[in-house]
Amino acid sequence: MTTITTSPPTAPSAERPLLLPESPPRLGPESRRLLGRLAIVLSVWQIIAAVLIFGVGGDTATAAGTSMVFPGAGFLFVAAPILFALSLVALLIALVLWWGVSAHVAIPIVWTAAGAVAIALVDGPRWFVDRGTTWGWAVPVAYACAVATVGWMLWRVEQAYRRKLAKVPALNEYLLHADLPERITSRRALDDMDAELLRWAYAFAFQPEDGLDGLDWGEQFHGGTQLRYQLNSLTWAMSLYAANHLANAPAQITTALETMVRKHTDLRVWKYWRTLNLVGNFDPNPDPIRRDNIMFSAFLGDVINSVEAATGTEVFDQPGSLEFVWTDGRTFSYDHHSLAAAVQANFERSRLGFFPCEPGWSFTVCNVMGAQALHGHDVAHGTAQWPQIRDRWQQTLEQEYLTPDGSYAHIRSNHVGLSWDTGEVPGGHYFANGTHRFVDILPAHAERAKALDLRGAAPKMAALSSMVHDGRLDLDLPAELERHRTRRSTLLPWIKVIGGARMVGDESLVDAAIRSSAEKCATGASWPERPVDASASGLGSYMLLRWSAPLDLAHLNMRGFVAPVGPVLADTDWEAVLVTEAVSDDGESLRLSLRPAGDTAVDQIGLEFDSLVPGTTYVLEGAGAVETVVADDAGRATVTIAVGAPLHLRLTAGSAA
Amino acid sequence: MTGRRRPPVRRALALALSLLIPAGLVLGFEGAGVRMTRNLLLPGIGLIDGHLVVAALALAGAIAAIVMWLAWGVDWLPIAVVAASTIAAGVLTPGASTSPSSATDLVPVAAAHEFPLVVLVVGVVAWVRNRAARLPGARHLAARRTRSMEGLSDLPRLGPVDRSRAVTICVLAGADAHERTMLSSTLQVPDVARRARLVGGWARARLAGDPFRVDHAHARAALALVGDHAEDHLARLAADAVNAPAGVPASEPTWVRPLDATLAAAALARSGSPGPGLRWSEMLAGPFALRRGHRPACWWTPLEVPIGSASVWEHTASTGIARAHGWCTDDDWPALRARCLGAAARGIASPDDERTIAAARIWLAFVDDEQAARILSRPTVRRDPLAVALDRLAGRLVTTPSLLATSTCCVSSASSASSPQDVPEPSQQDSPRHPQQDSPQDSPQEGDLVP
Fold first, then answer.
1. Of residues A208, A211, A325, nearest to B375 (C-beta)
2. What value of ipTM does the predicted structure carry?
3. Which sign, positive or negative, has the C-alpha torsion A553, A557, A559, A561?
4. pTM for the complete prediction?
5. Planar angle of CA A454, A457, A461, nearest 5 degrees
6. Which among B338, B371, B380 has CB closest to A208?
7. Staple partner for A480: which of A278, A492, B10, B181, CB 3.0–4.6 Å?
């Protein structure tokens, strides 16, 4: 494997973030090759245009040549300026389709079609001028447009490169002395909003298997309403809840998480892929895993990693456990292993090193998710898929996507090596992305990204921290447009505050923001309405941030599944009570919080405990009541209690009977 | 089969007429005869020279008449429209001679009669229906009524035909006394009898008397199973079945449709008589046999010809119920499987898909297909009342595969039995096949119908 040259391991110490390369190239080798190929094709195209204009001559050849010099310019030559304007509009639409639905042929089609029509109009009628009129000045104008366009693009790229390069010494100086805060690992005290969110999540999971109520509906290509991402975020959030707050009562949430993973196989979630594959790859195969579509396969792989790490379920390791059925009945069967294998195969097949989401477009964030998917699979199953591709993946990240200031380009074309700002992320670049932000796959890169992110976030968070009073952040934050401007929500600015506070490690600010956001954004509504004012994706992000301690997603996946220690609430009437917390802090006792699942109190309910020390007397106390039971030979015991309101109980071992 | 059927004679007669009438017209009326003959091929075309509007009206009238014939069995109407337009073509369009110059000119019209247009209309209607259903938003619009339905409680909102079918299926699934009362009440709504009266009146001039005395298999099967006069209805249904060419009454005059016929046979089978079941089993192995993965949509009794392909849901439902009775083998499942899984993937947005899913679950009681069972279990059948009825029956059959088993056994399509003596021993107890079943029986038992 090629050695990494652009970003040497210049971290001064294990604690210091990785430094930035001081003389980074403008382009990586594969991007250079792709752009070189594009340049050759365009050069040949322009040579042919020049031959037609200056060699062959005549109106028809000149119209053809002018059309080739700049899209639609042939219309200027044949004195049809309105058609020229329309062709520019068509070109803009083609550009959007190129990115939006991978219509790689859209721009060539518009370009050549405009030329063909211009040729056809050479001797045709004109608006406003005589039949057969030609404007010779259109030729230099076409060349001027072409030169201006290419020059403007090159100037923008070069200017951005130089601007970022100039920052490198200062950034490296900062990185040398950056003081990175510790991650918050203390477990938050859960409140009523956590219970409401959990109740909503269960209602979502336990609706009929084909139900997707609770999600936002809309287009599935690029908008903010993709069902796949909404499902991803909700499943990740519940995985964190399972790992952090219900480790010792896993039964119900494990079932819920399994159903949520299965919802990813619903045709409505992945149906978009057939259109993209057909338009972008000319491939009618609707299989959503086999080729490209990392935005689905890798994300689903990472979701399963999280679910397995949180609950220990092995359901999705069974062959055929993920069945994608197309409208004609064709069935594409996968499981956790074959899913990871498909992701790895796509990585290995890609010349760029990153493989596409939409055909021909490789996004950094999705490929980070792909790396996470392989890493998490390795942790869960002892495989070595991530190490097999890591060097090449890192090379692509650092040589093809890295820009001098440490940010990475959001997208790159696998066909022509171009990147641009799609408007999805500010500036089209970011220091880190994906749910783990490099923490598991490239820890040193994660440190650098965190340090660079902190430069902007830390001062703002410090200002907010000074506004915390009585455990609350008394701010009225205005509603903001959510991703892709799908809707406004009052929760979104709070999500940013909580995320920023977590990044800087300010626990009091996190708690205050969580508390205040719940008070200010609560809707009072119940399923299928959302308990807070946000989209489904926003709701998922909010739950993720609320429930990210002591384990966040990265550390959950790095840890893998660990069986619970101490007493376990094995069974109860899960439909009657909502168990909001079941944690053993010391490995011997159990802290248990529960409340009625519905509006009515539960007079009697049995709590069946497992993993107790056989023959030992256990005391369940809380809310003024004390119950004593003796564990049987199998380490089980059942206690019957009434649940009329939220209860916080503690099961502790007494003495041997 | 009984010895009273004489389809070969009728078919030969029809063929002879379709050859002789054009020949007679051409030879007898020269130019006018040629136009008339062309008009037989495509009503209106004989009027196209000089009477374009009349020609268009004739064509539209012929299409409407054929649709009415296909839907209600009004067979005299297309004959009348074709005959009238043909006579008009001969009378109204004198002028330029179009006499055939040689005998070869007769060839294109030699076999012309209204049948090509029927095939064309059936094909075009099916094509348009299928294509329209795929248009963006079309499925959404088509399913808008069903979207607001909530299962059997909305049974009265179904049309009389589907309502009757749903009632029969509910009874087969074991509706209790209370439910039977409710089901019966949905049949007492005037529109059931009104439809029967309309169809009987238009098709056969049955303007008075009991509208259910003949045909209307769907409604009569339901009436024979629930209501105060169920026994009377059952007796008359049985009597009608004896004389019916298919062994069960037609849905509309001359049209035997597979689901209605299966339900009628099922209703008759509950009286303990093996005859209708046996004859329907023969029909399923014969005229309604599986060909290239499809079964016919209907069977026209005068010439005993199958027409079209049954919709997926109707094919799945009728054969599933027939399979539960032991009237057919498992041969349909491989042909239906992919289409059923596709329906499961699409979900219940369309009532046809919802019915297909529910009907496929009936099949799961008899075939060992774990993957299909998993996939078909995903959608929740809850909207369309007929689908809910099928789903309820499927649920019963999964736990009790022998629920509908009769003493009548299927007839192999490869070696169609011609007499009761040829029929193999009946299956009394089907072995459960569904993976969700807890039964220890895992392999076919003696007498099981699985090939």
1. A325
2. 0.88
3. positive
4. 0.87
5. 120
6. B380
7. A492
